[in-house]
């Protein structure tokens, strides 16, 4: 059996906090609008949409903003794209089995309201 990095303890494995994980889930849902496509690169999305969605779930907006501004960007899970955000290159490196697993629960991902995340036609970021 192939050793799991966490079990082998050969090097530290970064784990996201609950707030960071849920923030990434909302970012993923906001960017990945067609489950039949690869999640990366996805579409850009607004920070406010992510923060407002998680506020409705009771998350502290400061913690959500901190997740967006620090860990999720440092881990390259999301990145800035002008005044918007988008999925980062680490998402492109996730194995296809990860995307397949997410497809099975895609409809359960917390997502911003559709009207808030889509930009009007012709509007540039």
Explain this structure to me?
The chain has 125 residues and is mostly helical. It contains 8 helices and 2 strands. Strands 1-2 form a two-stranded antiparallel ribbon. A hairpin with a 2-residue loop joins strand 1 and strand 2.
Radius of gyration: 15 Å
Low-confidence stretches: 115-125
How many angstroms separate the termini?
47 Å
Give the DSSP E fraction (strand runs of 2 or more residues): 5-15%
Strand order of the largest sheet: 1-2
Strand pairing plus helix content: what structural class? Answer: mainly alpha
Helix content: 40-55%
The biggest beta sheet reads:
2 strands, antiparallel
- Compute the number of helices: 8
Overall geometry:
globular
| DSSP, total strands | 2
- Mean of the pLDDT scores? 85
**Helix-strand pattern:** HHHHHEEHHH
Characteristics:
125 residues; mainly alpha; globular; disordered C terminus
Task: Quickly describe the structure.
This protein has helices at residues 5-8, 18-31, 47-56, 61-69, 71-74, 89-92, 96-105, 114-117, and strands spanning 78-81, 84-87. The chain is mainly α and 125 residues long.
Sequence-ordered SSE layout with sheet pairings:
Layout: H1 5-8, H2 18-31, H3 47-56, H4 61-69, H5 71-74, E1 78-81, E2 84-87, H6 89-92, H7 96-105, H8 114-117
Antiparallel strand pairs: 1-2
């Amino acid at each position: 059996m192939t050793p799991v990095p966490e079990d082998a303890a050969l090097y530290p494995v970064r784990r996201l906090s609950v707030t960071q994980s849920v923030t990434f889930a909302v970012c993923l849902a906001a960017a990945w609008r067609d489950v039949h496509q690869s999640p990366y690169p996805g579409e850009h999305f607004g920070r406010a949409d992510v923060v407002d969605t998680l506020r409705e779930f009771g998350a502290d907006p400061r913690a959500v903003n901190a997740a967006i501004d620090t860990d999720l960007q440092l881990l390259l899970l999301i990145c800035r794209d002008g005044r918007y955000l988008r999925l980062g290159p680490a998402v492109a490196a996730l194995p296809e089995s990860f995307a397949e697993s997410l497809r099975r629960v895609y409809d359960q991902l917390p997502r911003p309201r559709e009207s808030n995340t889509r930009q009007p036609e012709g509007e540039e970021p």
